[in-house]
Write a structure and sequence with these properties.
Length: 96
């Protein structure tokens, strides 16, 4: 019985970490520091790299929203799957 309660408690405390959403990462052409809030995500930027965990929007929309705030990106990826050249060009077309 104790094992059941311990396992249940462990699964309840681990659930929020698993629900964080996919890792979104971008490499910027110009450095940015701190948090960059876009609708659907809050990116943490350090130099030319920005990251967030978000499942609130389509990747292309997140990319477009990010470049509107920080300028063009040279790389954009969701859980390690990078945008191809066409998707990256379409995203950067929305840059500020």
């Amino acid at each position: 019985m104790r094992l059941f309660f311990a396992a249940t408690a462990l699964s309840l405390t681990a659930a929020p970490a698993m629900a964080a959403g996919p890792l979104v990462s971008a490499t910027l052409t110009e450095a940015a520091e701190g948090n960059v809030a876009v609708k659907g995500a809050a990116f943490r930027c350090n130099g030319n790299e920005c990251r967030t965990n978000s499942d609130r929007s389509r990747p292309a929309v997140l990319c477009e929203r990010l470049v509107k705030e920080v300028g063009p990106v040279t790389r954009f990826a969701i859980d390690g799957e990078e945008f191809d050249a066409d998707a990256l060009a379409a995203c950067n077309a929305k840059a500020r």
